[in-house]
Amino acid sequence: GVIRVEEICQRLGISPATARRDLDQLEKVGAIRRVHGGAVSVESRLEEPLFDDKASIATREKHHIAEAALRFVEPDDTIYLDGGSTVLEFARLLHDRTNLTVVTNSLRAAHELAGRGPRLILIGGELRRLSQTMVGPLTRCIVQELHVDKAFMGTIGLTLNEGLTTTDPGEAYTKELVVSRARQVILLADSGKADKVAFALAGGL
Fold first, then answer.
1. Residues 98 and 110: beta-carbon distance below 8 Å
2. How many angstroms separate the most distant Cα atoms in the chain?
3. Mind listing the pLDDT tens digit for each residue in 119-143?
4. Rounded to an integer, what distance in angstroms lies between the CA atom of residue 72 and that of residue 99?
5. How do strand 163-166 and strand 32-35 relate by DSSP bridges?
6. Which residues, 6 or more positions from 114, have their beta carbon under 8 angstroms from its beta carbon?
7. How far, in Å, CA of 101 to CA of 138, rounded?
8. Mean pLDDT, the chain, as a whole number?
9. Would you call 148 exposed, middle or buried from its count of C-beta atoms within 10 A (0-12, 13-18, 19+)?
10. Phi, psi (degrees; rounded to nearest 5) at 70
């Protein structure tokens, strides 16, 4: 699904200039999509499933990831919870952590923690119904005023070259903003996200 110019040169014994020229030609006929440093298959461009459909995929793996993420949480931390089904699974493990502050743009995570558990701060913005998150430039009003110890982030796609990608530019905007305000960023993603590229860049590695 993803290939770098360097890998093409090694495999085919051609120069980087030739590889780039060939990739440009392939993109013109719609066979590939060019990205920085290489190309991705047009078939690898991701469409986002409904939230409940996402939540039913790789459920055991997501639970193991969520449990592993708990070791990063320390008493009196201020943490950010991104949208996404794996991050929601993580939120479900925080009910008894009353010595935390949780900041989130996820309506699902907020609902999960509203009854008990950590102090909760909900970010406002434009509602993205597909992911049940608040996204876009309006989220800046709160996010730019905060510093969080750890941001637990989800993603739709993940590659070494492109980093984190998602299907919605508004969501990508908020993700990048949050990452810039976090001392540490922890990505919660199952292996199905690897080597996939979605529409909008949400942060490099």
1. no
2. 61
3. 999 999 999 988 899 999 999 999 9
4. 14
5. unpaired
6. 120
7. 22
8. 89
9. buried
10. -60, -30
Taking only the tens place, the pLDDT of each residue in 11-26 is 999 999 999 999 999 8
Extract the tokens encoding 51: 């939230």
Beta strand 148-153 with 78-81: parallel, antiparallel or unpaired? parallel
Cα distance between residue 118 and residue 127, in whole Å: 23
- Round to whole Å and give the CA distance between 168 and 48: 9
- Read off the pTM: 0.75
When pLDDT is cut at 50, 70 and 90, the band that residue 43 belongs to is low
> Per residue, what are the HEC states of the chain?
CEEEHHHHHHHHCCCHHHHHHHHHHHHHCCCEEEECCEEEEHHHECCCCCHHHHHCCCHHHHHHHHHHHHHHCCCCCEEEECCCHHHHHHHCCCCCCCCCEEEECEHHHHHHHCCCCCEEEECCCEEECCCCEEECHHHHHHHCCCCEEEEEECCCEEECCCEEEECCHHHHHHHHHHHHCEEEEEECCCHHHECEECCEEEECC
